[in-house]
Specification:
two-stranded antiparallel sheet, 12 helices, single chain, 5-stranded mixed sheet, alpha/beta, 2 domains, 7 strands
Length: 290
């Protein structure tokens, strides 16, 4: 899976957690306390490094702690699987993660997979041995089962995210289709009366998932994006200031790497995770003209 796509999903699932839960798990959303914030952890470590379970998922994409109306905390492990090819081990990896959560923290947890691929039965795991059988079912949202028209007609803010993801998946790397679909989803977003916060996250997800900074995207599409950002400029600037220090550290790290320092050295002096620096390098390489 391309790192830039993974980063786009983690950005939106952590940044607009309430919309994600409302859209994907409305029954749980009905019982959550909307006056309180959802805390989310991206890439929470579940297995010790070098363990026998390394071949399974050491990190789940997002782990939510959700304040409930009854005063308790609900826990949701959410997985995003951006697959163009069948991936038969998804259900097994979710099961292993669930077991690890129960083993490590004894947390009552529900799991959901947000899936863009073509593998069947990604929400069921069955294991057996000489008469012993375990069968586990968990929730899944399979994006290919939703038509672009259905998602376009849905007014929920998170439907814009799903529409962008669906069209990005349909483009399958074709630059002309990617640009066409980016225009389409930007137009749909412009027709909705979302508040500044929702609009900000939607537009930035569109920017990330369609890679609007890439050289093969026309100035016209970028202008459409910029024009929609104008009315929420004040909100965007506030968010930008909050991220200014992180951006500055990333620039310092990239300069250090360009000067020949190792990833470990750059991480040590900027205190940024090595994984984030690796993602940055991959993003920069993919945006270079070929």
């Amino acid at each position: 899976m391309a790192k830039w796509r993974d980063r786009a999903w983690k950005y939106i699932l952590c940044g607009d957690a309430k919309s994600a839960i409302e859209y994907l798990m409305p029954d749980l959303a009905a019982d959550m306390d909307r006056t309180k914030e959802i805390s989310s952890v991206s890439g929470m470590e579940l297995f010790s490094e070098g363990s026998d379970s390394d071949r399974y998922m050491r990190e789940n994409d997002v782990f939510y702690n959700i304040p409930m109306l009854d005063g308790e905390t609900g826990n949701v492990a959410m997985f995003t699987e951006q697959q163009h090819d069948p991936a038969d081990d998804i259900a097994e990896r979710v099961f292993q993660t669930y077991i690890r959560l129960r083993e490590k923290w004894r947390l009552p947890t529900t799991c959901i997979v947000l899936y863009t691929g073509s593998a069947p039965n990604v929400n069921t795991y069955v294991e057996g041995c000489y008469g012993f059988k375990v069968s586990v079912e968990f929730r899944s949202y399979c994006l290919p089962e939703k038509s672009a028209e259905e998602l376009r007609a849905d007014k929920h803010p998170f439907a814009r995210i799903m529409q962008a993801a669906r069209l990005s998946w349909l483009a399958k790397g074709n630059p002309k289709l990617r640009e066409k679909y980016a225009e389409e989803v930007l137009k749909t977003a412009a027709e909705q009366n979302y508040d500044n916060e929702k609009k900000f996250f939607i537009l930035n997800f569109i920017k990330k998932i369609f890679r609007l900074n890439a050289p093969d995207i026309s100035d016209g599409v970028r202008r459409d994006y910029d024009m929609q950002m104008v009315p929420i400029k004040e909100y965007a600037e506030k968010i930008a200031r909050e991220h200014e220090r992180l951006d500055a550290l990333e620039e310092v790290a990239m300069t250090m790497l360009a000067d020949g320092m190792t990833l470990e050295q750059a991480a040590k002096y900027t205190r940024l995770p090595i994984e984030d620096l690796q993602d940055l390098i991959e993003d920069m390489q993919e945006l270079k003209p070929h």
